[in-house]
Model the fold of this input.
Amino acid sequence: MNQDLFDECLAHYLSKFTLGKSWGKLADEFEYPDGEVLRQDFKRERKRRGVPARGELPKAIVPTNCKILLYDIETTPILALVWDIWNQNINTEAILQDWHIISWGAKWLFDPDTMSDVLTPKEALAHDDRRITKSFWDLLEEADVVIGHNSNGFDNKRINTRFLYHGLPPAHTYQSIDTLSEARRIFDITSNKLDYINKYLGLQRKTHTNFELWLRVWKGDPEALKEMGEYNKDDVYILEDLFLRLRPFIKGVANLNLWDEEYVSVCPSCGSSDLNWKVRPHYTTVSRYPAFRCNTCGAVGRSKKTDLDLEKRRTVVR
Done:
C-alpha cells in the first residue's frame, strides 16, 4: 500500500468515517477491487506500521529473551454420511474424510510481521496437510511460551494429533497460555468468544466470514485458500491485542524473571524492571511480603522473601 493511499485510509479511519467517503468510494478512487478488500489491506498495513487502533494506547514493548508465540489454526470439517440432521450419533464407519489442518497463522509478540502457511490447491484436494504441519512444528520448536484462544481445549490438541498422524515427535517443551481459559477463570464476560471479548473491550474485531469459505477451501479454490490464510493472520493480530489487555491479570503461567539474565527483579507478566514497591504489603495467613505494581503493564505481585524479622516470625501462630 503506497503512502498516499495509506494516508487517505488513515484519515478516513481516525475520523470514524465522517469525511463523506466510504471504503467503497475510496476503493473506486484508488482502483481497488472493492471496499472490503481495501479495509482489510489497510488494517494489516496499519498494524504492520505500528499505528494503534482508535482509542488504543501504543503497546509498551519490553525486550525479553523469552520467545512468545501467538498462533491460530483453521481446520476442515469432518465429511460423513448421516441419516438425519438432529440429535445424531455418527458412527465412525460413516466418516468419509476426517478433519485436517487448512492453515496456520502466527506471530512473535510485538513483531509487526505475521507468519502463515496454507494448503496449496493440490494439497487441499488431496487432504494432505503434511507440509504445513511440519512447517508449524518447526516454528513451535523455537517457542518458550505459546498463546492461543481456546488453545488448551482445541488448537494444541489438534496440532498434536496431526504431529502424531504424520510421525512427528512432540515439539520442544513450552508453556501454554489460553486466553479463553484465563477469561473464564478471572472474569465474567457475557460471552468468551474472541470477537465478543474484543468488541466488549473496544479492540479490533474478527474478519467476517461464513461456512461458504470452508466449502470453497474444500474444493481447492486458490482464492479461498488465500482468503483463509489472511483470515487466519487477522485472528492472530486481534489475539495479540486481547492478550496484552489480559496480561496483567494472568498469574502463574510464564514468569519472565526466568528469562532475564540480569540480577534484578522484573515484572513476571511483561518483563519490565520499572516496579513500584511503595504499595501496601501482601499478607498471607502466616507471613507478610513486600508487594509491587508494575509501572509498565499494571500487574501486581510480591517478593518471594518475607520482610518479617526472625523474632516476629517466631511469634506468628495459626
